[in-house]
Amino acid sequence: MKQLLILSGKGGTGKTTIASAFIKLSDAKAYADCDVDAPNLHLITDQEVVPERSDYYALPKAVIDPNLCINCDLCRQSCRFDAIYVDQVYKVDSFACEGCAVCELVCPSDAITMEPTVAGELALYKNQGKVFSTAHLKMGEGTSGLLVTEVKKQMAAEVKDVEMAIIDGSPGIGCPVIASLSGVDMVLVVAEPSISGISDMERIVKTASRFGTKTAICVNKYDTNLENTRKIEEYCKEKGLALVGKIPFDPEAVKAINSGNTIVDVDCPSGRAAAEVYEKTVKILLDEDRELVL
Amino acid sequence: MKIAVLSGKGGTGKTLVSVNLAAAAKNSTYIDCDVEEPNGHLFFKPTDVVEEDVTVKIPEVDNELCNGCKKCVEFCRFNALAYTRDKLIVFDDICHSCGGCMMVCPVDALTEIDKSIGKVQMGKSEGVHVYTGILNPGQPSGIPIIQRLLEEGKSAEEDVILIDSPPGSACTVMETIKDTDYCILVAEPTVFGVHNLNMVYELVKLFNKPFGVVLNKSLEGENPAEQFCIERNINILGKIPFDNHLGTLNSNAEIAVRKSEKYKELFTTLLDTVKKEVHHETTINP
C-alpha cells in the first residue's frame, strides 16, 4: 500500500478540500484524517455507517493520594513541567503533567501513582470495503503525535491489497506532522501564494526532507497572487520539486464544501484543476524509481 | 491587557487580526506564539532585531561510566533511551527533558547538556514591539519556545499585548492562553470553520476566559459561523469583509492598517470594542 500524505505547513490552504477530492476521484479504499487537533475530513466524506469508537490513552498521569502525602515538597521541586501545586493539599495539574513519573520516583511515602487517562477518541468507519480512520484529541492534550500514529495503525490493520491510501495531515511542522510523516511514501504540499504561505511551505518541505520523503507541490488559489505563484514555481525549480498543478480561486468550491460535497462532485474550475493535480500526483506516487532530490 | 487571538482551524485570519490590532494600537506588543509557522514578522519586518537561542536539557551519556544496568531505559516513559551493542543511545528528539534518567542512574553516567530547538527574536516595527518564536524544522515541540516568549513578553511596558496563537486546541494553544485576560476567536464562514470554532469555544469555556468572535471573510447572505454565535449568545466583536484588496495586501504581507484608511478605521474600531470588553470583564470579574 502506497501512502500519500497531504500537508501544507500553513493552515487553511486547502488540505482537506484536496484530500476529499482525491478520495472521491480514486474511490479510495483506505483514507485517514491525521489532523487530530481539528479533524474535518469526516464532514465531507459522507459516512453512512456508525463508526467503531475507542478511547485513546496517552501516557499515565500522576495522581497524589492526600492521605499518604507527607507534604515533603520533593515532587513539586522535581517536576520540570510545573505540574504540581499546593491548594491546601498537593495536587497535579493534569494538563501540565507529561507523565514522566519523576514525582512517583522521588516520593518517599508512595503517595503518587501513575494512572491512565483518556486523551482522545479514535473512530474507524468501515463501509463496503472502504476504511476511514480518524480521531480527535481532547482539548489541551499534548500527545497528538502518538494519536496520529494510532490513526495510521488503525487504518493499516484493516486493509489488505489496497494500492493507495490518502492521509489528510495537520498544519504546522511539529509533533503531529512528524508522526504523520513517518512511513508514508509521498507528501503533497498544498501551498498558498502569499508571503506567509511561501515561508510556511519552505519550512514544511525542510521538515519532510529530513525524512527523505518524496515531495510534490500544488498551488491552491494560485490566481489570487500571480507574483507569489511565480515565486513558488521558481522555488520548485530550484529545489527540484515537482509542481503538480495550480488550482484557481473558485467561489463554487466554498459552496460545494458548505453543502457537504467535494469540489469534484460539481463541475467547477477548481474541481477540474484538482483532477489534473490528482493524475500527476498518483503518477509520482506509484512510480518506484522516481527520486526527488532536495 | 493581554489578548490572545485564536482559531481552531488554520488560515482563518489569526495573524491578520492580531497584526492589524497591534498596528492599530500604535504602541503595543505583538507576540507570535505560532512557533511552528511564524508569520507575523513577515508583516512587521522588525528592525533592531535581537536574537536568542532557546535550548532544552537533554541527557548525555559517559559510556566509560555506564555499567549497562538499563535502569534509565526502563524508567524513561518516552522511550528516549535504548541500550544496544553495549552502548546507551539517547534519542534527543523525543526526550521530554524530565531529568528522570539522571536520577535513576546509580553510577552518575548521565549529565545534562543544552540542545538548541529554535530561537526567539525581538525587534521593533514603528511603535510595535515584535516578539517571534521560531522552532527548528524536525523538532517536535515548540512549547519551551512559547514559554520563553511569554516570559519575555512579561517585561512589555505597553498596555496592549496581542498574542498570535497556533491553530488547534492542543497543548500549545493552552499554553498560549493560560495567562491572558481576553481571547478573540477568529472564524470563517465555512462548515470546517464552524466545526473548529466550536473546539476553541469549548477550550475558552473550559479555561473560563472571557472571549468574543471576529467573523472573517464575511460575505453577504448566510454565514454558518455567525449563526453559531447567535445560537449560543456569543458576543460578535466585529466583521471583516471578504475583500480582494485586503486579500492582496495580506498575501503580500502588508499591514492593512498601515496601507488603507478603510482598514485603519475597521481595526481601530475593533480594538476599541475589545478594550471595552476587557475593561468590562475586569470590572465585573476583578
Provide key terms for this protein.
heterodimer, A: 294 residues, alpha/beta, Rossmann fold, Alpha-Beta Plaits, 2 domains, 9-stranded mixed β-sheet, two-stranded antiparallel ribbon, 9 helices, B: 286 residues
Any chance you could write out the topology, listing elements then pairs?
The complex is a heterodimer of chains A (294) and B (286).
Chain A: E1 2-7, H1 15-26, E2 30-33, E3 52-57, E4 61-64, H2 74-78, E5 84-87, E6 89-92, H3 102-106, E7 112-115, E8 118-127, E9 130-137, H4 144-158, E10 164-168, H5 175-181, E11 186-191, H6 195-210, E12 214-220, H7 226-239, E13 242-247, H8 251-258, H9 269-286
Parallel strand pairs in A: 1-10, 1-11, 2-9, 2-10, 11-12, 12-13
Antiparallel strand pairs in A: 3-8, 4-7, 5-6, 8-9
Chain B: E1 2-6, H1 14-24, E2 28-32, H2 40-44, E3 47-61, H3 71-75, E4 81-84, E5 87-90, H4 100-104, E6 110-125, E7 128-135, H5 143-153, E8 160-164, H6 171-177, E9 182-187, H7 191-206, E10 211-218, H8 224-231, E11 236-241, H9 244-251, H10 256-259, H11 261-284
Parallel strand pairs in B: 1-8, 1-9, 2-7, 2-8, 9-10, 10-11
Antiparallel strand pairs in B: 3-6, 4-5, 6-7
Helix pairs in contact in B: 1-11, 5-6
Folded structure, characterized:
The complex is a heterodimer of chains A (294) and B (286). In chain A, 34% of the residues lie in helices and 25% in strands. Chain A has helices at 15-26, 74-78, 102-106, 144-158, 175-181, 195-210, 226-239, 251-258, 269-286; strands at residues 2-7, 30-33, 52-57, 61-64, 84-87, 89-92, 112-115, 118-127, 130-137, 164-168, 186-191, 214-220, 242-247. In chain A, strand 11 (186-191), helix 6 (195-210) and strand 12 (214-220) form a beta-alpha-beta unit. The mean pLDDT of chain A is 93. In chain B, the strands form two sheets. In chain B, strands 3-6-7-2-8-1-9-10-11 form a nine-stranded mixed beta sheet, sandwiched between helices. The mean pLDDT of chain B is 93. Chain B is of the alpha/beta class and 286 residues long. Classes of the chains: A alpha/beta (294), B alpha/beta (286). Chains A and B meet through helix 3, helix 5, helix 6 and helix 8 of A and helix 4, helix 6, helix 7 and helix 9 of B.
